[in-house]
Amino acid sequence: MKAIADFMKKNRYLGMSALLFLAILAFFGMVDKLQKKEYGIICLGDSIVGNVRDDTSITAILEEELGVPVYNGAFGGTSAAAQNQEERAAVAMDSISLTELADGICYEDFSVPNASINSWVSMDYFPEGAYGFNRVDFDREAVLIIEHGVNDYQLGMPLDNAEDPYDVYTFGGALRYTLRELQEKRPNLRILLCTPTYCWFLADRVSCEERDLGGGYLEDYVNLELEIAKEFHVEILDNYHESGIGGSFEDWEKYTTDGLHLNEAGRRLIAERIAQVLSLSDGE
Questions:
Q1: Domain boundaries of the chain, sorted by first residue
Q2: What is the CA 114 to chain-centroid distance, rounded?
Q3: Are the C-beta atoms of 264 and 51 separated by less than 8 Å?
Q4: Contact between 50 and 75 (Cβ < 8 Å)
């Protein structure tokens, strides 16, 4: 009888422990949910948006102009297209490519970039940027800004695949895949595409109008992005043709630090253009 009583007592404690354990899990689940931040704007992109994260950054100026919190989910060196078709798993940069992050947003699962960031770090802000996605509330209405293209151009990524318009190893395919998935699974997100800005290659004293790096000229990528925006009926801000950044070789210092990356004046110019588009649309 004593053995039976001891067993029942032991199992009662086990049951209580199990309930306590479940309560702890539920508590941390609630805490995790409470820690989600309601960003009004989420930015995906490359170094043009990602590398500068101080008060002069594009995202900080957007917060200043629009009065809403902005999440900077842009990473320098990344492209819209996946960069290595033969050994995709071997290319860590692909884990934070546009299509991978779009999948993460659609399913609220950032295990791929989170796991990858543990094994490599390209820039000091990468870990914070990757893990931060877990705190973004993607269920609320927000603006999703996508700024990609210049790295696709510089890497010579294929523009498109006539046989597969959703080929994520092409610039056009990656954009189409991203827009299709987001429109189907996150209709609460208002998407704004931003084209790359004009750029120069200082060492050779030539511009993006004069250099084809394997996939075409930068304007070819921009024009394709404009076409895809029409195809999917999404807003697009044409910073290549309409921002005022461009011109002769001597003009590179006006808005850039090195012919490509924007200086403080350039960042303010682009941020204010984005803010104007969003403000005008909100007022209509």
A1: 1-35, 38-283
A2: 14
A3: no
A4: yes
Distance of CA 29 to the CA centre of its chain: 26
| Residue partners of 60: CB distance under 8 A and separation at least 6 | 53, 54, 70
C-beta separation of 141 from 113 below 8 A: no
> How confident is the model over 51-96, as pLDDT tens digits?
999 999 999 999 999 999 999 999 999 999 998 766 544 467 788 9
State how far the Cα of 149 lies from the Cα of 218, in Å rounded to an integer. Answer: 8
The pLDDT tens digits for 213-246 are: 999 999 999 999 999 999 999 999 999 999 999 9
Give dist(CA 41, CA 205) in Å, integer: 37
Q: Which fold has domain 38-283?
A: Rossmann fold (3.40.50)
Work out the angle between the directed axes of helices 218-232 and 171-185 (0-180°, nearest 10): 30
Which residue from 255, 267, 274, 270 is spatially nearest to 52, judged by alpha carbons?
267
SS3 assignment, position 70: strand
CB 143 within 8 A of CB 42: yes
